[in-house]
UniProtKB/TrEMBL annotation:
Record-annotated membrane-spanning stretches: none
The protein's annotated pathway: Porphyrin-containing compound metabolism; protoporphyrin-IX biosynthesis; coproporphyrinogen-III from 5-aminolevulinate: step 3/4
The family this protein is said to belong to: Belongs to the uroporphyrinogen-III synthase family.
Highest taxon in the source lineage: Bacteria
Record keywords: Lyase, Porphyrin biosynthesis
Swiss-Prot/TrEMBL GO biological process terms: protoporphyrinogen IX biosynthetic process; uroporphyrinogen III biosynthetic process
Enzyme class, broadest EC rank: lyase
Record-linked Pfam families: HEM4 (PF02602)
Organism of provenance: Rodentibacter genomosp. 2
Name of the protein: Uroporphyrinogen-III synthase
Catalysis: reaction(s): hydroxymethylbilane = uroporphyrinogen III + H2O
This enzyme's EC code(s): 4.2.1.75
Coiled coil: none
Amino acid sequence: MAILVTRPDERGKQLTDLLNQAGRVALHLPLFTFESGKELESLPGKLNRLKSGSYVFLVSKSAVDFSVKTLKEIGLHWREDLQYFTVGQRTAQHFSCQSERPIHYPIEQENSEALLALPQMQQLNGKQVLILRGNSGREYFIEQAEKRGATVEIVECYRREPIIYNSDEQSSIKRSGVDTLVVTSLEILHALIEFLPENEQDWLKNCKLVTVSSRIADVAKSQGWQTVILSPKADNQSLLKTLLS
């Protein structure tokens, strides 16, 4: 049986290749592409206006890629007097390589709750927090940071654009013997449900679903999935280990 990887861009292709190399049949079906966000041009000015010691939170590798590209194009460097955060180790490493700046991230879990448990997040009175993200995202971190006294600003660095497939491409998933789905965000989960017609929904929700957070797992179960498996982390190596086991 086959594994359907819905993770977009190169990360999804890499996971698919790793699975195929390990002897598992895997197909890559990204449901989004990423384009420049409508607020990206405002990023340099907003970074420059931050007070020394302010926090910058990059929600994903895509946020890193689009923001790094924008600053490089105008010759602006990431400020040394700001503190940088992300929720995942891979995104943190990616940012450090691109920016040559240290970055903080939670070790045990890759989610907003773990980020908010970091020592730096306990006293936020008067702190400026700039969040670099896509055109949608979870609001929990923003709400909690504001409750703790922070002033939060958001920059939409990228936007998700749906990929349109024809009906033959849709039905080919079932014909390919897919019985396991890899879903790495709520946006992808909702797009996957909308992707298939009503008469394919029972088949879809009988597939095993491998995901990266308990929040996504809970929504999947509420939508009708019976078998939901949680990867301990969101990076491809953790997903690969989960899928092979």
